[in-house]
Amino acid sequence: MSGRLTVVGIGPGRADLVTPSAMAALNGASDLVGYGPYLDRIPAGNAAQRRHPSDNREELARARFALELAASGRNVAVVSGGDPGVFAMAAAVFEAVEAGDPRWRALDITVEPGVTAMLAAAAEAGAPLGADFCAISLSDNLKSWGTIERRLTAAAGAGFVIALYNPASKARPHQLGAALDILAGARSPDAIVLFVRAAGTATPEVTATTLGRADPAKADMRTLIIIGSDDTRLIAREGQRPWVYTARAEGA
Amino acid sequence: MSGRLTVVGIGPGRADLVTPSAMAALNGASDLVGYGPYLDRIPAGNAAQRRHPSDNREELARARFALELAASGRNVAVVSGGDPGVFAMAAAVFEAVEAGDPRWRALDITVEPGVTAMLAAAAEAGAPLGADFCAISLSDNLKSWGTIERRLTAAAGAGFVIALYNPASKARPHQLGAALDILAGARSPDAIVLFVRAAGTATPEVTATTLGRADPAKADMRTLIIIGSDDTRLIAREGQRPWVYTARAEGA
Asked: Radius of gyration of chain A from Cα atoms?
């Protein structure tokens, strides 16, 4: 089986945050498969290249479609925002491989890493992921809310900085508030909380607040939230947004 | 104060994994400050650019030196492997700012994100970070071993995939074994463990094993270790290394 499939991370938004390796994979592909707005970010490649935009919700169907294309001999790039391995398309592709046509295991499948949202968000704010941290998706489409609660509690209790992906959507308006309530039970109301919207794009928005004051209604699908630990600090600056960082040394 | 300081992530190793934005920051800098081997990875810029290589251990002194240079009006790039915000130079720079000359707060300080080791390692293996995960540094230079134990136990118990940075060094040969022992108390001996060495370089080495069989002596400073959750799977392939991924759905 001669087909190829590359799951390509195109980073958080700005063209200059796409790695040259990812760009080469996109340019070399005969077919681009992905969520429409991600495909729209990619400059036109060679004239023969085909684009297959799809809805954002049908990840597994999209993965199967891409694998079928690759199995037919095409050189397919599955386009993913951020890093494809973090709450994005790479796991869906391998799920489809495991459950699908055994011949798909002979395909040449690779993953091109990228700058994931949490790294772009941290860079906008300073260095809030400067010590041990975890990443939790608040979407309960594929796991129970009980699991999310258990992970939030464990992470807060053990002193991790916590990055929340998918904090809110139209279908799930109340989950971020519930998550912040859980965290408030385990961490000080003065713990620093960052809302970073559109990180790594031309128009990022950074809001530094505290767990006691955070307003969950301020988050949308483009927001990445970082909950600081006891070692997360705010550096005030005259006339400018503060820097937020987490000290490398505990209790320092 | 007119100086500038950019903390630049140059990714895991390959030149084509450096973002164009990071490369532009490096090319535009009057001074490059960083660990010698990282500076050696950067192609020569303009003839007037100065390089200030240093030892890997003196992060805070290096940060202060860079801030002093910037305060003197230079355009300084502090060069960091991977992403500067993840167990790298960005937090050290902000620590130095907070404790240092108040005028440093007026400097133009920015962070250029990059592909951190865990993302490069995951991409080499498949998609092992496909669900909630955490990142823990095993170095106890700046935190107690008790804190590390507590975080390992909490993360394993709550079902996080766990990425271990700095698993071993000459000064700390026994910590990875101790960490694996702790994890063995909370997770099945069949849990999948990845040792990924030199991820994102021209010569990556991926070993998939299990918690019961993992040999801590196989890790060195260039190894990133990923401990799978109950939802992490191995896809066997004929004549080739298996793919490892974590299912997005729990218990699927």
From this structure: 20
